[in-house]
Specification:
18% of the residues lie in helices and 20% in strands. It is an alpha/beta fold. The relative contact order is 0.17. Pfam families: ThuA.
């Protein structure tokens, strides 16, 4: 499989993007196939599926990329239901509305635009949605959710802030001092064949200091963006989540820049930078290849992410927002593919 050295990006973002595009273009179906998804549990031994070791990423200590054979069908009773998680521990996008109360499915108001949209859109295709901003409810081993959707989360969203710990004790098991238990839960959920969806700020400002999460998002982090402005989206590949999208379509967003450039993923959407009025004040941009959506298998599970979705109107049916119908189709089919209800990253 043609792939870049993990830190080749340090030689320059523009050069790396060009090399990534060339590597992707040069990889034939056999190089990118990575086998097929198993349908039953397989013993974990040293006899891993043929060629799967080629997809091991030593930086994140996981197998990741376009490698369906690495999927873990370990939970047999997953339901057509997802968990929407939108907790913010820093900046909060307007489309999230005010912080939600603790617990599962707290009351939503009209201001909770993203949450209402995902509940409605997934309901239209027969998928149930639970929603929460309660970090203690992160699903883990054996969860029956087919996917967990991180909607514009920010900063240390998986840290249980404010839990009392006795200063004199390094560990106090009487106060719930395992403050990052949600990280363990998410990792175990993925390793059991869970689905992860990251939307907008979920790959643009979440868990900066947790390498596992960076890898889950494609081996990248948001760096900066230009103005909220019109641009032209480019559909890079045929996929369940790009089905019905034209080769080029107009949209309005913040057009995130990345550092490092994502790698070992299937590119889905990008932006034509020549259609943007501004890029940023510092980042040089990515030139002719500027990705925005991608997918990969990760540590036994499926991961699908998109940087699109800044404006509340993009989440509002009938708003007249440029490209809204295409955006909706991309989000719904992306979630369905991460759930396994549509072919994933094929």
């Amino acid at each position: 499989m043609a792939k870049l050295p993990r830190r080749a990006v340090l030689r320059g973002a523009a050069a790396t993007a060009a090399a990534t595009a060339a590597a992707t273009a040069g990889a034939g179906p056999a190089a990118a196939s990575g086998g097929s998804e198993p349908t039953v549990k397989q013993p974990i031994t040293t006899n891993i599926p043929r060629g799967q070791d080629d997809f091991f990423d030593p930086y994140y200590n996981v197998i990741r990329g376009r490698v369906p054979a690495s999927y873990h069908p370990w939970v047999s009773n997953r339901q057509d239901r997802i968990l929407l998680y939108s907790r913010t521990a820093g900046p909060r996008h307007a489309h999230l509305g005010p912080a939600l109360a603790a617990g599962l499915n707290p009351p939503l108001t009209a201001a909770h635009v993203l949450q209402n949209a995902i509940v409605k859109w997934m309901g239209e295709v027969g998928v149930g949605v639970d929603w929460t901003e309660d970090v203690t409810l992160m699903p883990g081993i054996g969860s029956t959710y087919k996917a967990v959707v991180f909607g514009s989360t920010s900063r240390d969203t998986l840290w249980k802030h404010g839990t009392a710990v006795q200063p004199a004790a390094a560990v106090n098991t009487t106060t719930g001092a395992h403050l990052d238990s949600a990280k363990t839960a998410l990792r175990q959920y993925m390793r059991a064949g869970g689905g992860f969806v990251g939307i907008h700020n979920a790959i643009g400002g979440t868990e900066y200091n947790w390498p596992y999460y960076e890898g889950l998002c494609g081996g990248t982090q948001y760096y900066d963006h230009g103005a909220h402005q019109n641009g032209t989206v480019v559909t890079y590949a045929k996929d369940s989540s790009t089905r019905g999208l034209p080769a080029r379509w107009d949209f309005k967003d913040e057009w995130y820049n990345w550092m490092p450039v994502p790698g070992r993923v299937k590119w889905l959407l990008g932006v034509d930078e020549s259609t943007l009025a501004t890029r940023s004040n510092t980042h040089p941009g990515h030139g002719r290849f500027h990705p925005l959506s991608w997918c990969q298998y990760y540590d036994g599970g499926r991961s699908w992410v998109t940087a699109l979705g800044h404006d509340s109107a993009a989440w509002t049916d009938g708003s007249g927002y440029v490209g809204q119908a295409f955006f909706k189709k991309h989000i719904v089919n992306g979630i369905l593919s991460a759930m396994g209800n549509l072919p994933f990253c094929s």
